[in-house]
């Protein structure tokens, strides 16, 4: 199988490439990535010359047409992915997430190729802390931020292309990922690298907000289950029953890193901050037999702390600039 992986130099995409080379050596992998601030060739260094790397944008019609035509399956990770950035400057989110996905869809339609579209639980909006409901495949879309609105837009385009044009596509909506190669602007690696740099972790607001954490390898195993056994036109929720509030996550990071429990700062909250995400992954568990391998958050988080400790060369050069950007917003 010839796989085109968009966004393969980013966090989840690079882990997907490494998983694929290890577990599916029969696949030929081409990565299409624009190498924005979030993408890095260093995240693919371990793949060596076993992949073809193309630097380019998913909105480039001619390039996308050629690459989609030359592959069997497209796994679409490329996106602008950070909520805080989408609040400060929404424009690239519309271009990449909406126009980029549209460009891929038109090429997939023309060439009759299979597409898997990687999306997020944030398209469903948020839940109250005490709501017994969790997001499932039938939950209505209700996004809150410019990021989640553009991801919702991209999902709806894929759904329309499935129904109207009969393209062979699947969609997954996953909860918050953590693991190696995650950009240090994101919550967990920001706090780990803060501690490693002698800075206190930074908690938005009171820290009551809940996220449903999943290790990136479990997310990618679910994507593979969909590629191999998913129903054409099917939608799948991916989550590992990992609900934690942000305060508890910081407490665990401090404990794992040998710091006092109160060694963190409260900083400005995120405007429109979603309160809680929670996934009901019954469908993918029952229909595709997928199960998360990381059953405790502590185990996955300890491995992630060790990865950032061992790979300082990957994140240290950008740490000061990331923190300077946050400081401008009192975060
Ligand atoms: P990331 O920001 O780490 O990586 C995105 C990658 O896409 C980068 O390598 C970047 O260079 C590339 N890219 C950006 N714009 C591009 C463009 N116009 N053309 C080509 N490449 C471009 O993101 P991530 O966290 O790895 O997320 C990957 C996907 O998974 C996204 O679609 C995101 O919405 C989704 N997702 C992420 C999470 C999470 O917790 N991180 C959870 C659920 C779903
Ligand atoms: O320094 C911080 N302090 C803090 O308290 C940062 C960066 C974040 N937070 C809070 C905000 C959120 O409640 O932590 C939580 C997680 O924040 P992010 O890492 O920015 O993730 P989130 O906004 O939940 O979105 C993530 O999960 C869904 C990914 O970035 C998205 O790409 C994915 O779709």
Task: Summarize the topology.
Blueprint: E1 2-6, H1 11-23, E2 28-33, E3 51-55, H2 61-69, E4 73-76, H3 83-88, H4 91-111, E5 114-120, H5 146-165, E6 168-174, E7 177-178, H6 187-196, E8 202-204, E9 210-212, E10 214-215, H7 216-229, E11 235-238, E12 243-245, H8 246-256, E13 265-267, H9 282-288, H10 297-310, H11 312-328
Parallel strand pairs: 1-2, 1-4, 2-3, 4-5, 5-6, 6-11, 7-10, 8-13
Antiparallel strand pairs: 9-12
This protein binds nicotinamide-adenine-dinucleotide and thymidine-5'-diphospho-beta-D-xylose.
Nicotinamide-adenine-dinucleotide (NAD) binds near residues 12 and 58.
Keywords:
331 residues; single chain; binds nicotinamide-adenine-dinucleotide; seven-stranded parallel beta sheet; binds thymidine-5'-diphospho-beta-D-xylose; 43% helix; Rossmann fold; alpha/beta
Explain this structure:
With 331 residues, the protein is an alpha/beta fold. The protein has one domain: 3-Layer(aba) Sandwich (Rossmann fold). 43% of the residues lie in helices and 16% in strands. The chain is built from 11 helices and 13 strands. Strands 3-2-1-4-5-6-11 form a 7-stranded parallel β-sheet, sandwiched between helices. A two-stranded parallel ribbon has the order 7-10. Strand 5, helix 5 (146-165) and strand 6 (168-174) form a beta-alpha-beta unit. The longest helix is centred in the N-terminal third of the chain and has 21 residues, at 91-111. The mean pLDDT is 98.
């Amino acid at each position: 199988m010839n796989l085109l992986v968009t966004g393969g130099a980013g966090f989840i995409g690079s882990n997907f490439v490494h998983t694929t080379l290890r577990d599916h050596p029969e696949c030929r992998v081409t990565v299409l990535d624009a190498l924005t601030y979030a993408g890095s060739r260093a995240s693919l260094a371990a793949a060596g010359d076993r992949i073809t790397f193309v630097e380019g944008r998913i909105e480039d019609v001619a390039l996308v047409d050629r690459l989609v035509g030359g592959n069997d399956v497209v796994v679409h990770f490329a996106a602008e992915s950070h909520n805080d950035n989408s609040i400060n400057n929404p424009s690239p989110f519309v271009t990449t997430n909406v126009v980029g996905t549209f460009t891929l869809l038109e090429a997939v339609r023309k060439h009759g190729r299979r597409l898997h579209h990687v999306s997020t639980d944030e398209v469903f909006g948020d839940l109250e802390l005490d709501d017994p409901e969790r997001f499932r495949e039938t939950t209505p879309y209700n996004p809150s931020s410019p990021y989640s609105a553009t991801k919702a837009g991209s999902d709806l385009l894929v759904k329309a292309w499935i129904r109207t044009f009969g393209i062979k596509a699947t969609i997954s909506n996953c909860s918050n990922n953590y693991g190696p190669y995650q950009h240090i602007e994101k919550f967990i690696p920001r706090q780990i690298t803060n501690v490693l740099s002698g800075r206190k972790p930074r908690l938005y607001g009171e820290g009551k907000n809940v996220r449903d954490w999943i290790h990136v390898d479990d997310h990618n195993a679910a994507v593979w289950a969909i590629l191999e056994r998913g129903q054409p036109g099917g939608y799948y929720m991916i989550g590992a029953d990992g609900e934690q509030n942000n305060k508890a996550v910081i407490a665990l990071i401090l404990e794992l890193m040998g710091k006092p429990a109160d060694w963190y700062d409260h900083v400005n909250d995120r405007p429109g901050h979603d309160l809680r995400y929670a996934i009901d992954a019954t469908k993918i568990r029952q229909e595709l037999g997928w199960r998360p391998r990381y059953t405790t958050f502590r185990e996955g988080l300890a491995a992630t702390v060790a990865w950032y400790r061992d790979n300082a060369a990957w994140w240290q050069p950008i740490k000061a600039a990331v923190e300077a950007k946050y400081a401008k917003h009192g975060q």
